[in-house]
C-alpha cells in the first residue's frame, strides 16, 4: 500500500456524474493508492466516503445497482420527503443495512477527510470533518455537502443550516493548497474546456428569503464555477496539479437514471484511474 503524504486529493461533485469519480477511486483502491488528505464536495463527498473506508465498488453499487433497484431519484421524493434523492434510503438504510459502511476503518485510518458544505447563514463554505467517532455527525456532514439547493431540505450540522458545498466551492483545490499541499490530484467530472453557458440571475424574493447571504451566493454560482474551471486548467498547464477528468463530453446528467450511461462513465473513470496509477507507481 502507498500512502501519499505530500499531495492532496480533491474530489469535485456533479450529482450522478460522480460515478466517474467512483470509477477513478476504485482504480486507486485496486492499486492501493491512498492519500493522507482528501477534500471533497457533494457527490465527491459521497464517493469519497467509500474510498476513505477502503471499500472497493461500494460507491458503484450505491450509484448504479441500487439506483436501478430502488429508483431513489424522483419528484415524489421531493414532495413527500423534501428531497429529490430519498434521504432515508441514502443516509440511513444504505450505510447501516443495505451497503454497510465500515466506520471502523474510516475512523481508524488516520487520514483527514474534509467535506465542503455551504453555510446558509453566511453564504460561505465550511470545510467539515469528523474524527471523534461520531457516526451520526459524519453522515450529517456528507448529507449537508450533498443537499442540492431548491430540491433538498437544508441539513443541520452543529446546529447550523447547510446546503451543497458546490454552491460556493465546487472544486476545492485552493483549500487543499491552504492546508499545506502544494501538489494536488483533482478528480473532475467535466471534460477539459467545458463551461456552463447559463446566466446567473437574481433569485425571486420568496426563494430562501430568510437567508440573504445564501441568495447572493446562489446568484453568482455559474460565474464562480466557470472561474474555478479556468483556474484548474491553468494550474494543470503549470504542473501544480494533476487532473483526471472525462476525455469526452459527458452525457450523464446531474439526475441521470440511465444505467447504461452511468456504467459507461464509471468504466471511463476506472480506466483513467488505472492508467494514472500505472504511470506514478
What does this molecule look like?
This protein is of the alpha/beta class and 281 residues long. Helices cover 44% and strands 17% of the residues. It has helices at 19-30, 43-52, 58-70, 75-81, 87-98, 103-108, 135-145, 173-178, 212-219, 221-238, 259-280, and strands at residues 2-11, 33-41, 112-119, 124-128, 155-157, 160-164, 183-187, 241-244. Strands 1, 2, 3, 4, 5, 6, 7 and 8 form an 8-stranded mixed β-sheet that branches. Strand 3 and strand 4 (124-128) form a beta hairpin.
SSE order and pairing:
Layout: E1 2-11, H1 19-30, E2 33-41, H2 43-52, H3 58-70, H4 75-81, H5 87-98, H6 103-108, E3 112-119, E4 124-128, H7 135-145, E5 155-157, E6 160-164, H8 173-178, E7 183-187, H9 212-219, H10 221-238, E8 241-244, H11 259-280
Parallel strand pairs: 1-2, 1-7, 2-3, 7-8
Antiparallel strand pairs: 3-4, 3-6, 5-6
Helix pairs in contact: 1-2, 1-11, 3-11
